[in-house]
Amino acid sequence: MKAIEITDLTKFYHKKKAIEGVNLTVDEGELFGFIGPNGAGKSTTIKLLLNFIYASSGHATVLGKDIVKESAAIKKMVGYVPSEVRYYPQMTANDIIGFAAKFHQIDQATIQMKRYYEMFDIDPHKRFGDMSLGNKKKVAIVAGLITKPKLLILDEPTNGLDPLMQHHLFKEMTRQNKEDGMTIFLSSHNLREIQEYSSRAAFIRDGQIVALENIADKEMAGKVIVLKGNDLPVTALVNAGAKVVETTETTARLTFDGNVQTVLPILSADGIKDLSITNQELEDKFLTLYEGGKTK
């Protein structure tokens, strides 16, 4: 059974496309990254999976259950950390997290709550309306983690968190992933954290999945070629299959997914004063997909 299985999922707001024809699967026990710029369709996809909004067409299942017909059952098995955290302002952290634990019938909830309060430096008696952005996000994170969900969905979870809290979050997430088999669906702008923790990642652009990368070995397929000099052979490299990430009058940065031996003759051109060939990372893939061909 797949933790998430999406087939041709489409959402239009009147005539404006949010996502279209999205197909995606996430395995149980996987830590999966979901990448894209603002407005690409990440949050829309998540809201559709949780039945907060309805699809225009297509369908999906979460933990083997239909996202519309069995939404209530899904919510009992899923933890969710939204990008924008909203709770009743008069409720305290203890009220919010305690309610989540009670709803999911968590054993020894008081002990677990105390542990998380210490881990994330949360004042349990502070009212939500009086909290900073970072503290609000920490409350949402703990409300998601304490339920020990089969699937944890996080939408930009590190926004507002300082580095220490980010460290605690990923340490606890990976612990539950390894010890309890919790599936994690991580939507984030932070490419470093996705590359470090995820086994696979999908890129979404303009409401469509444009790439799916296996990054479990921490090394992306392909190479990054950086050139410095005058009269650089950019056109020849593009004709050989390279993709331009960025160029200036005296520099060029390209990605190449083929056998690098085939472009070595091109890289011997007289105009090249310096060059480097390195393994492609997630940031290089992101720049190729979203800023390919940018010239300064």
From TrEMBL:
UniProt similarity note: Belongs to the ABC transporter superfamily.
GO terms, molecular function: ATP binding; ATP hydrolysis activity
Keywords (A to Z) from UniProt: ATP-binding, Nucleotide-binding, Transport
InterPro entries recorded: AAA+_ATPase, ABC_transporter-like_ATP-bd, ABC_transporter-like_CS, ABC_transporter_ATP-binding, P-loop_NTPase
Protein name from the UniProt record: ABC transporter ATP-binding protein
Residue intervals of the ABC transporter domain: 4-231
Pfam families per the UniProt record, alphabetical: ABC_tran
Keyword Transport belongs to the record: yes
